[in-house]
Amino acid sequence: MSGSTCPSTTKPQFAPRSHNDVYPFIHPSKFRGALLDQVAIITGSAGAIGQALAESFAVAGAKLVLTYNNTPPPTTLKERCINLGASGVIFVKCNVAELKGCEDLIKQTYETHGKVDILINNAGANSLGLFDTQPPEAFIHELAVNLHGPYYLMRLLLPHFKSQRSGCILNIASRAGTVAIPYSTGYCASKAALINLTACVQKEVDVEGLDDVHLYSLHPGGIKSAMTLSKYSPSSISTLPPATQAAFTNSFDTLYNDSPYLNGMTCVALATGIAKLVLRGKYVDVGQDLEDILAQPEAIKLDENLYSLHTSFLGGLVNGGTGAGAATGNQATKETKRKDGAVTGEEGKERKRGEERFEFPGFLMW
């Protein structure tokens, strides 16, 4: 049953160690050649996060299909990846916000390599602006890049992953998808949707018993990149209400000081399947020590709220729904008496029947 887990049934937890750079458990030397000849598509490869992903998967020996849209990756990236151990490197121009571009990308990858084993949805769009004054085109663009692109590519690849009974999808989300940040509405909304999209698709895959098809969404850490530098530029911040400008100006250096290779090597580790029994479908913050997380499988299994989006209500109301995990039958209608005297279930209905009724015209309340 979804919702808050009773503390008495949850295994004791310990806080994982925190990191802002590569640490021993995910060190490149441990994964050298671990993905030899596996084909990995990495979108948004021109930026800081994308280049670090490419180099990290190169160390693991993958064949890299690196996409870009407006700005090509530096010419030195291919040579660096080959020197690090990549089995091959090709660049593909692709606007992931358009279905046709995604279709062409998958077609070209299959024509070149005959398969795909790993998809990393990294391309992103992020901007600052007041919700009611920001051009609608900017909001729609963020949804298209951050959500529609990953959806298109996942939808195109999942049948192949099911057919070969293996595949890994890594969706680069953000902490912004789990919190409400003013003036970042499009980014927050699209990343929240991406996190839940990942979880929903994993549940569908699990129903089919495809243990080697595993998906993850990740917060890649706070990384200084062309995108974040543009978002927090003086010209961008100047569009915000004066009372809020200082907070955004002062937060940049505090929030964005993580190495992009921390995300890169975490993604490599996840792609090898090292965490698929514990974290499949989950939202992972790369700043937490993966070894410490994997040491607590029972705690994660018993508390569905861990590493996922969830909602809590006063009084312990269960946030149920339809399908697997929803309360049904007698369990769903069981009477629950709360401290304030309120009653749910059949007894509550009886009380309502005895109260004065109010009816909207044409609408029966009870």
Automatic annotation (TrEMBL):
Residues 334-356 have a biased composition (Basic and acidic residues). GO terms for molecular function: oxidoreductase activity. InterPro entries: NAD(P)-bd_dom_sf (IPR036291), Sc_DH/Rdtase_CS (IPR020904), SDR_fam (IPR002347). This is NAD(P)-binding protein. GO terms for cellular component: cytosol. Belongs to the short-chain dehydrogenases/reductases (SDR) family. It comes from Pseudoneurospora amorphoporcata. Residues 325-356 are annotated as: Disordered. Pfam families: adh_short (PF00106). Keywords: NADP, Oxidoreductase.
